[in-house]
């Protein structure tokens, strides 16, 4: 435990107040760094990625959806959703909300769920996970969802869906001591992919022309946003142990090894099948690699991470590029960025592979208990076949719970919102895009080579200060 010079403490505060015995400063510093890295994945990471990966006329709205969600989730999280996720157990699937989170000083105390860090740091770290989950979900809805419906959707889904999955698997729920989910293969990615597809079904498709032709408006910026995601995943998986220890180092290495392998496999399949490599394909392969390794990053050997990269670069590729085109249901549901494939399929794959490849000694180091696992592969080798098979059964059970809950909760939320405001913009707004939704455009030049007339009802914009340039609707 490191020591600190306390001479600068305010009058009346003793050394043990600001630096108590239970606080490990190195762990706390790494935890805050990890939280910042996960936050940067959303803002600016996904803000840039979404704003660049869509058609030019939807750049502002897509980026704004991510920015709004980040802010809205934070308030929901500190007011009630954190306690619902990690607070005292109220039911097998949800914790009991408690106003102490903002009214009291318990946040300065030691995190009860483990680690030598303050609760406040853990709250912020877990907020970054909650926020990115909702934003990833939003990738399925880009290019047509009514922004006001999105404003209602974010807090409702955070409360009724994400908090339930987090409590059931990570908090004090009925699956907490049974499921291997190192950093969110199920809680974050399977839930966002399933909920994204479900919400896309209820919101409806994009404008017909957008579904047929939806090129990225800025591929270089898209790569910049993707870079924030890839490098930010160092904190995503590296922060899960709540300490700067051996598991942390292994998790970071495995994360990048799996991701690099996945990219190369995805690109190889593109070249073999389509005779041309694709930048967008490389980003998709990066995403599936990051997602797949997440539930296993710190509890598998590096050779297993390579195997997971091979599978994450090939199985989601097949579901997206082949199976999707053969499925009438998947063709009907307009999942704008293919979140179902990159997150639900890759998250499920990672969760199942965790149950297969989790190493017993790493499980004991991370979870501090010996009744989880072993992975089925090690169960066979170590003559613990029944225990390995049992763990695979729990992995399947966890996947089923997250899938069913997200389908039901997301459906209820979408139907409820549709009674208040339309889930989807009208056809005129869909044809125009950002200008209709916000009265703003992403670029001064008209990148699509055409200019749509703006109906009168979209011209009612607030008076801008004199130093602002005229909006596109005034030109």
Automatic annotation (TrEMBL):
UniProt cross-references to Gene3D superfamilies, sorted A to Z: Ammonium transporter AmtB like domains
Superkingdom as given in the UniProt entry: Eukaryota
Bilayer-spanning residue ranges: 30-51, 63-82, 122-142, 149-170, 182-204, 216-235, 247-267, 279-297, 303-324, 336-358, 394-417
Ammonium transporter AmtB-like domain ranges (all copies): 30-443
Location of the protein in the cell: Cell membrane
Main location: membrane
InterPro entries assigned: Ammonium/urea_transptr, Ammonium_transpt, Ammonium_transpt_CS, NH4_transpt_AmtB-like_dom, RhesusRHD
GO terms classed as biological process: ammonium transmembrane transport
Keyword entries, A-Z: Ammonia transport, Membrane, Transmembrane, Transmembrane helix, Transport
Membrane topology: Multi-pass membrane protein
GO cellular component labels: plasma membrane
Family: Belongs to the ammonia transporter channel (TC 1.A.11.2) family.
Name of this protein: Ammonium transporter
Native source organism of the sequence: Salvia divinorum
